[in-house]
């Protein structure tokens, strides 16, 4: 396989020369560099490359090409190389310019480009290369060729093989799946020797796991800890954005911190292929990348992690909160932060539930997207995660239909995402609609849609269904002493009823539950904003409240 290409286009020879110099100096060992002086030349070259089966990882275009916006060329790139990262090169002086900012926003919202980048300064311009490297990593992850990728080989798409892919998805661990009967699957198995039990995981360090349990994966990844009754200053339940934030702030402030999760890092955020409105990431960041960074940050500060272990009980004992685990282990904390988050609500249609992993997926749009190339797929949901999934899948699928129960997209989706969805030509939006049936012989092949207003039903062909509906908090295991609303979300602060907080002997702190010293943050909390940024904020606030509680001697 030839090395992937980096393509740069500018009709100013001096500016193009500066970009070419930087690309060749840093990346020519692993990528080929192709530079063109006009958009027409570039399009002709891209068409030839596509016809030859080449891979283009990145296209850089000047702000103005042949008197037209460079975004016009980048919009055409999506048609030819739908997975290439498309970047507009802008002058340094345009950062902060309102007109330039509005043009960039409109181009991204319209799906005409992916990112912008300030032109390279005289070398060494490490900011330029940091951005280029992040774009190339995003491309590699889409191609399932990122560093430290885990291979999964199974007999079928569904069953335990799918469960393992879900585990790796929750871990934000890059991975790829092969059927054992495929050429790629046989090649991977041949490389690791004869294996009698499937599915098989080949870890990035070469370790091979045959039909592993979740605990086996945790041990292999080095995230298993002894849970034989150790005491901690802070125990966090849940490793989504709120839990990771609490771990970073707790550990950095000297608290002996343990984070426990039945899966691994990131929570629902790992299903977001591009979060564009998170503070400090002007070019956007994937949920998986954000989770990996936060995990490493907490780890370096000294937080410990117990993954693939589920908390099943919570009780007060001798001034501590004791948590029992499904593995039989026990941990105790002087304070506890509940950050279990929420999962997508099950559709509850038996024929579709039977096809989970075989065309029916809860979340998973980021990892399963390559399977939908040229197919008709459906996404169910009206929140940001559904919009992000539809946009990501549209880069692979022939057509994506977004099925929304509400009457409008604006009812639950951020404005910038609504704009992008509406501007993407191969996304169809069906509002006021729900999925009521479907099926297939071993793999999904059809759905039944119902119009919620008129009640009429329609059968449609579908190769894949991605479900991102509702929010079901992971709180069924909590004791009755932890007050919850009728949907299971944890009550905190002023929302705790007077009756439930009587035994506190005081008003609960802002994020404190009806049990003293037990806090809740993020999506699991009643009244939360259901946004990554707010969950991160609540995680940090919870630690400040822990300190207040300790200082007060409560």
TrEMBL record:
<keyword id="KW-0285">Flavoprotein</keyword>
<dbReference type="InterPro" id="IPR050097">
    <property type="entry name" value="Ferredoxin-NADP_redctase_2"/>
</dbReference>
<protein>
    <submittedName>
        <fullName>FAD-binding protein</fullName>
    </submittedName>
</protein>
<dbReference type="Pfam" id="PF07992">
    <property type="entry name" value="Pyr_redox_2"/>
</dbReference>
<feature type="domain" description="FAD/NAD(P)-binding">
    <location>
        <begin position="232"/>
        <end position="539"/>
    </location>
</feature>
<dbReference type="InterPro" id="IPR036188">
    <property type="entry name" value="FAD/NAD-bd_sf"/>
</dbReference>
<dbReference type="GO" id="GO:0004791">
    <property type="term" value="F:thioredoxin-disulfide reductase (NADPH) activity"/>
</dbReference>
<keyword id="KW-0560">Oxidoreductase</keyword>
<dbReference type="InterPro" id="IPR023753">
    <property type="entry name" value="FAD/NAD-binding_dom"/>
</dbReference>
């Amino acid at each position: 396989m030839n090395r992937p290409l980096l393509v740069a286009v500018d009709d100013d020879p001096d500016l193009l020369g500066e970009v070419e110099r930087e690309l060749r100096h840093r990346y020519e060992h692993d990528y080929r560099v192709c530079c063109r002086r006009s958009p027409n030349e570039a399009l002709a070259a891209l068409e030839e490359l596509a016809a030859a089966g080449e891979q283009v990882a990145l296209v850089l275009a000047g702000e103005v090409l042949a008197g037209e916006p460079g975004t016009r060329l980048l919009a055409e790139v999506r048609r030819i190389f739908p997975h290439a990262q498309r970047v507009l090169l802008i002058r340094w002086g345009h950062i902060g310019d309102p007109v330039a900012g509005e043009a960039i926003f409109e181009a991204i919202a319209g799906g005409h480009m992916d990112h912008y980048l300030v032109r390279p300064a005289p070398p060494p311009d490490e900011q330029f290369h940091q951005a280029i490297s992040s774009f190339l990593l995003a491309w590699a992850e889409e191609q399932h060729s990122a560093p430290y990728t885990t291979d999964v080989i199974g007999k079928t798409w569904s069953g335990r093989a799918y469960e393992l892919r879900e585990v790796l998805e929750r871990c934000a661990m890059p991975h790829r799946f092969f059927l054992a009967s495929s050429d790629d699957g046989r090649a991977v198995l041949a490389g690791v020797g004869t294996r009698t039990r499937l599915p098989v995981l080949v870890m990035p360090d070469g370790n091979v796991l045959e039909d592993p349990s979740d605990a086996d994966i945790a041990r292999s990844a080095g995230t298993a800890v002894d849970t034989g009754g150790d005491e901690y200053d802070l125990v966090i339940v849940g490793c989504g954005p709120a839990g990771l934030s609490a771990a970073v702030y707790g550990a950095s402030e000297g608290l002996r911190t343990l984070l426990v999760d039945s899966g691994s890092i990131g929570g629902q955020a790992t299903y977001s292929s591009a979060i564009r409105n998170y503070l400090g990431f002007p070019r956007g960041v994937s949920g998986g990348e954000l989770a990996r960074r936060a995990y490493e940050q907490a780890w370096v500060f000294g937080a410990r992690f117990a993954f693939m272990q589920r908390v099943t009980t919570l009780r007060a004992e001798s001034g501590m909160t004791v948590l029992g685990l499904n593995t039989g282990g026990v941990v105790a904390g002087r304070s506890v932060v509940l950050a279990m988050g929420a999962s997508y609500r099950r559709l509850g249609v038996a024929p579709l539930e039977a096809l989970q992993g075989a065309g029916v997926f809860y979340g998973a749009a980021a990892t399963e997207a390559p399977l939908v190339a040229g197919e008709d797929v459906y996404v169910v949901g009206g929140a940001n995660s559904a919009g992000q999934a539809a946009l990501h899948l549209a880069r692979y699928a022939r057509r994506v239909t977004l099925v929304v129960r509400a009457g409008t997209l604006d009812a639950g989706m951020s404005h910038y995402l609504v704009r992008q969805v509406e501007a993407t030509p191969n996304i169809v939006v069906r509002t006021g609609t729900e999925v009521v049936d479907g099926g297939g012989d071993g793999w999904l092949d059809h759905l039944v849609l119902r119009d919620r207003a008129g009640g009429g039903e329609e059968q449609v062909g579908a190769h894949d269904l991605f479900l991102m509906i509702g929010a079901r908090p992971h709180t069924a295991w909590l004791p009755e002493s932890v007050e919850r609303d009728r949907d299971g979300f944890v009550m905190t602060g002023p929302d705790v009823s007077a009756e439930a907080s009587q035994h506190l002997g005081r008003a609960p702190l802002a994020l404190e539950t009806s049990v003293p010293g037990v806090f809740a943050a993020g999506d699991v909390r009643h009244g939360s904003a259901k946004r990554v940024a707010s969950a991160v904020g609540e995680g940090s606030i919870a630690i400040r409240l822990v300190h207040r509680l300790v200082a007060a001697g409560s």
